[in-house]
Design goal:
This protein starts with a strand and ends in a 27-residue tail after the last helix. A three-stranded antiparallel beta sheet has the order 1-2-3. The protein has a three-stranded antiparallel beta sheet with strand order 4-5-6. The protein folds into three domains: 63 residues; 208 residues, Citrate Synthase, domain 1 (Orthogonal Bundle), CATH 1.10.580; 111 residues, Cytochrome p450-Terp, domain 2 (Orthogonal Bundle). Helix 2 runs antiparallel to helix 9 and helix 9 crosses helix 18. The protein contains 18 helices and six strands. It is mainly alpha-helical and 429 residues long. The structure holds coenzyme A. The site of coenzyme A (COA) has 16 residues, from helix 17.
């Protein structure tokens, strides 16, 4: 097989080296194309562009494969703890027992956030969206840790920023929920495991002991793992491109949260539940909404269906669906919205429109259902996605930083006015 491709333009031949990934993926290295030919590549929304080499996550969208550092998502979701997966993503290998103990101890030591953070929370109006709050809190962390602004710190200092982020994000997320409910804060309890600690801060009350439910802990652990990384998606690419200007980690992650918020990305999990509520309020006619999604004159889309990369099935959705069934069963949830979700899933999957376009339920379709059954308010769903995605974003940012990648800066094909003289006020009519 040739390791070069030829691009012939006018009389010029450009030889592009073929780059091969460890799973056999092939890409054309066109980094010298413009210098040699004056041409740039044109690929709106980067549908066909490899922006980086990366050794963190592998996806085969046709086969429905997702692996982190070589380990399948099925093995990780069924066997690992979220912190184990975070360690894997961040350090490149699974921890041994001692490394895991040391890591969990380290994270426990950093779960508290500065008391002044509470004052910032007080300034948010009631009803402000939790994702906006999380973005603000995240960039505000740089104010509490100004050392993080220095892009030339020691590796130990970078590691400390990363540890703080992993340790404090659950505390911030729980604070957002408590503010929303108008309840007093529940501080971290460091004898608890990471996920249990989060659930205790979230659903516990200062007035009484919270009984942790192993079914909920296991479901939450699985959900966080399933969201931990997804290679060069919109938010991870945002984190990388912001970080490429040597912006600090907190600011880069805050930008990633902004990207995640949109309904075409993580915001879809909130929209799934809102869509189901709309269907219910409209009388429960699922077919009517399927028909709307198929109508090209109607901007409505079935939320939680379709994926840029997965064109067969979303492996995370398969795992989560089993988990959703278990959680609903064990919690004895009897929620009409969830029956609507099942009906919608069945009808859409049987419809040729969705089959022809390879549109299947994605991770957001089922995650919202579990979060609702667990008792999270709908507008917290995307924040929970962000909590799970934290190690992935950080791993992507760190990989980019350590590789010394230059500032990200796409080109464009300009289609505006060509040069014209500046008119006087009179000449403008
Ligand atoms: C995820 C998503 C943004 C992927 O977008 P994409 O890769 O750019 O795919 P496109 O928008 O080009 O869609 C391809 C075709 O499927 C249709 N389509 C895609 N998702 C659809 C949906 N959820 N409902 C109805 N039609 C959909 C498009 O209209 C298009 O049809 P056409 O070929 O007749 O024009 C898109 O599927 C979507 O908007 N899904 C709903 C939001 C969601 O769940 N996001 C979470 C992703 S994890």
């Amino acid at each position: 097989m040739s390791n070069q491709a030829k691009i012939i333009y006018n009389d010029q031949t450009f030889e592009a080296p073929v780059v091969k990934g460890s799973e056999g993926e092939l890409g054309l290295d066109i980094s010298k194309l413009r210098g040699s030919t004056g041409l740039v590549t044109y690929d709106v929304a980067y549908k066909n562009t490899g922006a980086t080499q990366s050794s963190i996550t592998f996806i085969d969208g046709e086969k429905g494969i997702l692996r982190h550092r070589g380990y399948s998502i099925e093995d990780l979701a069924n066997n690992a703890s979220f912190l184990e997966v975070a360690y894997l993503l961040l350090k490149g290998h699974l921890p041994n027992k001692k490394e895991y103990q040391d890591y969990t101890d380290l994270i426990r030591m950093h779960t508290l956030v500065n008391e002044d953070v509470k004052h910032v929370f007080q300034a948010f109006p009631n009803g402000s969206h939790p994702m906006g709050q999380l973005m603000t809190m995240m960039s505000m962390m740089s104010a509490f840790y100004p050392d993080s602004l220095n892009p030339h710190r020691s590796e130990e200092d970078f590691d400390m920023t990363i540890t703080r982020l992993i340790a404090k994000t659950p505390t911030l997320v729980a604070m957002i929920l408590k503010k929303k409910m108008g309840h007093p804060l529940v501080y971290p309890k460091n004898k608890l495991e990471y996920v249990d600690n989060f659930l205790n801060m979230t659903f516990g009350q200062v007035t009484e002991e919270y009984d942790l439910d192993p079914v909920l802990s296991s479901a939450m652990n699985k959900l966080l793992i399933l969201h931990a990384d997804h290679e060069q998606n919109c938010s991870a690419s945002t984190v990388r491109i912001v970080g490429s200007s040597q912006s600090n980690l907190y600011a880069s992650i805050s930008a990633g949260i902004a990207a995640l918020w949109g309904p075409s990305h993580g915001g879809a999990n909130q929209r799934v539940l809102e869509m189901l509520e709309d269907i219910s309020q409209d009388g429960g006619n699922v077919q009517k909404f399927i028909d709307r999604a198929k109508d090209k004159n109607d901007p409505f889309r079935l939320m939680g269906f379709g994926h840029r990369v997965y064109k067969n099935f979303d492996p995370r959705a398969r795992i989560i669906k089993t988990s959703a069934d278990k959680v609903l069963d064990q919690l004895k949830v009897n929620d009409p919205i969830l029956y609507l979700a099942k009906e919608l899933e069945e009808k859409a999957l049987a419809d040729p429109y969705f089959a022809e376009r390879k549109l299947f339920p994605n991770v957001d379709f089922y995650s919202g259902i579990i979060y609702r059954a667990m008792g999270f308010p709908v507008d917290m769903f995307t924040v929970l996605f962000a909590l799970g995605r934290m190690p992935g974003w950080i791993a992507q940012w760190n990989e980019m930083r350590k590789a010394g990648q230059p500032i990200g800066r796409p080109r464009q094909i300009y289609t505006g006015e060509v040069h014209r003289p500046y008119p006087s006020w009179d000449e403008r009519g």
